[in-house]
Amino acid sequence: MGFSTTGLNPQLIAAVTEQGYTEPTPIQAATIPAILEGQDIMAGAQTGTGKTAAFALPILQQLSQNSDDSQNPERPIRALILTPTRELAQQVHKSFVSYGQNSSLQSALVYGGASINSQIIALSQGVDILVATPGRLIDLIGRGAADLSQIQHLVFDEADRMLDMGFMDEIRRILKPIPAQRQTLLFSATFAQAIFDLSKTLLNEPTLIEVDARNTTATQVEQMVYAVDADRKRELLSWLIGSKNWKQVLVFTRTKQGADQLASEMCKDGLKTQSIHGDKSQGARERALEAFREGEIRVLVATDVAARGLDIDQLSYVVNFELPYNAEDYIHRIGRTGRAGGSGLAISLLSPPENYLLEEIETILDTRLPQQWLPGYEPDPTKEHRPARNSTPGAQKRRARDRAIGKKPARRRR
Ligand code: AMP
């Protein structure tokens, strides 16, 4: 049916055609007309579904229709997009720049870990669209460099992750100067009670759009679970990558130290590997990502936070070296593969103490993920296992209770 049925103007259709998009993805087909009508939206969509264009395109259209404002020499910020991480912010900003290439709209990007002065200068020159991470935006508001009093469109991208990362206080502070009369769009890969609670305070009679059933994984992703002892996981992983000749493998670990250690061991196994996590400088993360995109490194080991917003086309393989403590992270992780129609394989390496984490994932997916054994790597039944952190019966009970009352998990260090 093409993009013409979405109500987008020819300029924007030309811009998406230039990107090689011929058809709107399901989330785009559902949200673009509703956003153009001015509705508030609460959309369930994972990264990889085309959700960025789903909000960027109709916002660009609405802003350019209001041409009086773009002629305003003061150029107030009229659209604010909040993202949990700088990588996602960069990705979203890039999309606004490329989709908006045929318009005179200006967009800016602000995030922590980079010079605040150049961001202040960029803002002082007048921008229509601001893409920001919460902490840095608050700094800029505090310095009087970001005026949010003229916001017409407010987007929360990956809202579940923002709550998970403990940004609720920042969100409250950012909301204060923003007019109540505005369009608000909330995108979230998963919907837990906390998201519904947040939506009540933010959105005005929102239209709920869900293209995938709630809390499901992308259907085109094949999921496999290999049971293996923890101390043999690396050996198994290197063997899988080497023997199956996998290129571009994204591997998740729970901790920064774990990511570094695994990356250095995989290099010793002869696989070009780098790690990205919150302790690495922005430049180092970007260089690693670029090398991964270009195929110069074969394996990228990442923590959950560092991986948010990574957009690597046609990523075929995602490996959970360890299962995440937060079952919803599993959905985010494997959402990196099988993007925008491509197929993908998500492998989880499961050591016996992690069984309870698999059960939690199966509960939110409402599906079973059968465990398999690879010949030569079967878990040793005589082995003593240290229980995984938080796996004591008391801790499990506490977490079950917190989930039942909708309390968000404690902020974790990664
Ligand atoms: P997102 O979910 O926004 O991270 O987008 C995932 C990927 O899908 C990005 O690489 C986009 O460039 C791509 N994409 C977005 N919309 C379309 C479309 N209509 N057709 C094909 N690819 C798309």
Main beta-sheet strand count, sense and barrel state? 7 strands, parallel
State the CATH architecture of the largest domain.
Answer: 3-Layer(aba) Sandwich
With strands numbered from the N-terminus, the spatial order across the biggest sheet is 3-4-2-5-6-1-7
How many angstroms separate the termini? 44 Å
Q: What ligands can be seen in this structure?
A: adenosine monophosphate
Radius of gyration: 22 Å
Helix content: 40-55%
Please give the domain count. 2
Low-confidence stretches are: 409-414
List how many beta strands DSSP finds: 14
The computed structural class is alpha/beta
Can you put this structure into words, describing what you see?
The chain has 414 residues and is an alpha/beta fold. The protein is built from 17 helices and 14 strands. It has two domains: 3-210, P-loop containing nucleotide triphosphate hydrolases (Rossmann fold); 221-399, Rossmann fold (3-Layer(aba) Sandwich). Helix 13 links the parallel strand 10 (273-276) and strand 11 (299-302). Helix 2 runs parallel beside helix 3 and helix 3 (51-65) crosses helix 5 (86-99). It starts with 9 loop residues before the first helix and ends in a 10-residue tail after the last helix. The structure holds adenosine monophosphate (AMP). Adenosine monophosphate is lined by residues 21, 23-25, 28, 47-53, 311, 313, 339-340.
Question: Which key phrases capture this entry?
Answer:
7-stranded parallel beta sheet; 2 domains; 414 residues; single chain; disordered C terminus; Rossmann fold; alpha/beta; binds adenosine monophosphate; 17 helices
